[in-house]
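Quick start: read one record
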Amino acid sequence: MSGTEHYRKLERMFAGTPCNQGLDIDIDVEEGAAELRLTAEESMHHPAGGVHGSYYFKLLDDAAFFAANSLVEDVFLLTTDFHLYLERPVSSGTLTATGAVVNDNPRQTIAEAVCHDEEGNELARGSGTFARSSVELGPEIGYD
């Protein structure tokens, strides 16, 4: 399979995942990298009017995860560890998270991700460790 075909299958898997339903998230996957975009809505706010940190985490974890899984074509990876730094609040606009693999070896892959607002302000960053699972990439999990 070509790399491009693998990346598009990962994007379709992401789009069909139940936890992503109802969220307006776009994703682009390339070799060792991924970018996600989410438009902030009032329904995502915590009581003080900013986007809740769980959305930052979702964007960062997914950007790092898909960057990592772009390098693995046979099985689904699992996040085994993730460190998150919330740096700046935001209430509206498009949040963009970019992920990149920083270390890839047979036992684990380490990827980092950074989230920015529309003005280029860094909102959050994180890094994760990803390990191979026993779940094969296939139509059963939306990888088609």
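DSSP finds two helices and six strands in the chain.
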